[in-house]
Amino acid sequence: MRTLKKHGVSDKQMRWEEKRLLPNKTLGDFAWKTLHEELQLVATKQDFPGMRKVYWDMLRVLEIEGKDTLHIEKALMQTDLNFNKSLGFKRVVIVNHSEEEHCEKCQALIGKEMSIQTALKTMPLPACKNCQCQYEPA
After folding, report:
1. Ramachandran area for residue 15 (φ above 0: left; ψ -120 to 50: alpha; else beta)
2. Per-domain residue ranges for the chain?
3. Which of 111, 70, 71 is nearest to 91 (CA)?
4. How many other CB atoms are found less than 10 A from the CB of residue 70?
5. Which of 21-30, 61-70, 105-114 has the lowest average pLDDT?
6. Distance between CA atoms of 27 and 17, rounded to whole angstroms?
7. How far is Cα 51 from Cα 39, in angstroms, rounded to an integer?
8. Number of other CB atoms surrounding residue 93 within 10 Å
9. pLDDT tens, 30-59?
10. Are 58 and 72 in contact (CB under 8 A)?
11. CA-CA distance, 78 to 123, in Å (whole number)?
12. Is 81 within 8 Å of 123 (Cβ atoms)?
């Protein structure tokens, strides 16, 4: 898995883990454990770009396994909000740069401005299953 290689896991380590795993475990479980450990490391440093990268890789693992990604999508949005807050921004606006047609939920949110605190409290994004909306500093 390329995702694991980006996080310092060698082919040899992956093969060893595949052999070592119990019958009810998968390489995805090993990937998840590896990514979670890295997330803890970058979160401790408040490395928001690093956290964002790990969350994206977690999303990929869940998507490959056909699992629900909503909790990671929300964590990714929280990371973006906290990053903007750390840069001194107080407010964000919801945007969608996708050229695809937007669902009713997204359409209702696009252009809405709010404080970062309100966004963190209410977490309106992601608004739908294939949400392409994002927060941008206002």
Report:
1. alpha
2. 1-67, 87-138
3. 111
4. 11
5. 21-30
6. 7
7. 6
8. 16
9. 788 889 899 999 999 999 999 999 999 999
10. yes
11. 8
12. no
User: Please, what sign has the CA dihedral across residues 42, 43, 45, 46?
Assistant: positive
pTM: 0.76
Q: Which of 61, 6, 115 is nearest to 135 (CA)?
A: 115
Name the one residue in this structure whose structure tokens are 């693992």. 61
Residue written as token pair 């929280």: 78
pLDDT computed for residue 4 by the predictor: 60
Alpha carbon separation from 35 to 18, 60, 98 (Å, rounded): 16, 11, 28
Beta carbons of 133 and 103 less than 8 angstroms apart: no
Nearest in space to 138 (alpha carbons), one of 84, 79, 97: 84
Distances (CA, A) of 73 to 19, 24, 46, 68, 104: 31, 26, 18, 10, 19
Q: What φ, ψ does residue 130 adopt, rounded to 5°?
A: -110, 40
